[in-house]
Amino acid sequence: MVLDDSREIARVDTGGMVSLVQRLGPMVAEGWEAAATLRAPSGPLAAVVVCGMGGSGIGGDLLGSLLAESSPVPVLTVKADRLPAFVGRDTLVFVCSYSGNTEETLAAYDAAHHAGASIVAVTSGGTLAQRARERGDPVVTIPPGCQPRAALPYLLMPMLRVTAGVGIARISEADVKEAATLLTDLAGQWGPAARLADNPAKGLAVALRDAMPVIYAASPNMEPVAQRWKTQFNESSKILALWNTFPELTHNDVVGWERVADGPALHVVVLRDQDDGARNSLRVEAASHLAFRGARGVTEVQSVGTSRLARAFSLIMLGDFVSCYLAVLRGVDPTTVAMIDRIKERLQLS
Ligand code: F6R
């Protein structure tokens, strides 16, 4: 089997995406450290806004989800070149762009600057780093050299540290340590050296080989994680995928399942978490029984760990591995995103 042949994985994964997924644990700790000396914004805050696109924007979705239970102010992610009208002096704006050169994010940054917001830039360099230094805005500089989506902990963890510093996030050093240790352990269980027969990440990639993945978070807790799975299938496996969240999907998606026999083969992956709640568990059971009957398969995967941070990252790591293994099965390099690059180049010329 291809997935148990490390030379075959290395032959297809020329950009080394699998080894970056294996490093998610250390990256969580490094990302937290990256903001250790950052000057936290002072003064009362009415809102937190994260500006970022794609692999740099999903960190904002995760931040909002992780802060939902503790934050006294709204946390919003903006994936666009403009900001909502409420952004002003009492808004903390994180401007996240791994490359530092994404057009929409730079435009949103300029809008935040003009609105007088408190700004923190998170980037590996580019125009964003340069512009932020010229304007005197704090910059968290993260290591360059990989794909933005592979750098997720570097983008998320500094924002968590800054929001913890201003009393918005409830996250401890112990949570960070737990997530880093857990991910290192899971990298052994799900990594390329663990054989298919004992490796659920490889098993799920095989199950998804000829079907479109439909990723459903069993509750809003893991909503951005479901979106992350979907975008990793897009960018790493080079396939289309769908995602949604319980309970919302029981008010729309389920109707779309009535006639799926007419369309492509679909495989549902349900992301489960200990805090899904009894009612959502019943909804998952009802939808699996009544609606997903036309699916090629339904697989439930469970988060592991204690803190919300560790649990979210456990499912992120699983999805990252699955998307890479599926890429290997399809013979495509998980790293390259030629279509994103081509569209950015074309826009630069116009
Ligand atoms: C590529 C990726 C993309 C980029 C997006 C924005 O791996 O994940 O979705 O994140 O094109 O680019 P950056 O992150 O450099 O602002």
Count of helices?
Answer: 14
What's the total count of β strands?
9
Summarize the biggest pleated sheet: 5 strands, parallel
Arithmetic mean of pLDDT? 97
Topology as a string of helices (H) and strands (E): HHHEHEEHEHEHHHEHEHEHEHH
- Tell me the fraction of residues in β-strands, as a range: 5-15%
Rounded to an integer in angstroms, the radius of gyration calculated over CA atoms is 20 Å
Q: Report the bound ligands by name, code or SMILES.
A: fructose -6-phosphate
What are the segments in which pLDDT stays under 50 over at least 5 consecutive residues? none
- Terminal residue distance: 47 Å
Shape: globular
Strand order of the largest sheet: 2-1-3-4-5
Structural class: alpha/beta
Helix-residue proportion: 40-55%
Account of the protein in words:
The protein has 350 residues and is an alpha/beta fold. The N and C termini lie far apart (47 Å). The protein has helices at residues 6-12, 17-22, 24-34, 58-67, 103-114, 126-135, 152-165, 173-190, 200-207, 223-235, 253-256, 278-290, 308-330, 338-349, and strands spanning 47-51, 75-78, 91-97, 118-123, 139-141, 212-217, 242-245, 266-272, 297-302. The chain is globular and about 55 Å long. 46% of the residues lie in helices and 14% in strands. The model has no long low-confidence stretch (mean pLDDT 97). The strands form two sheets. The protein has a five-stranded parallel sheet with strand order 2-1-3-4-5, sandwiched between helices. Strands 7-6-8-9 form a four-stranded parallel sheet, covered by helices on one side. α4 runs parallel beside α7 (152-165) and α10 runs parallel beside α13. Fructose -6-phosphate binds next to loops.
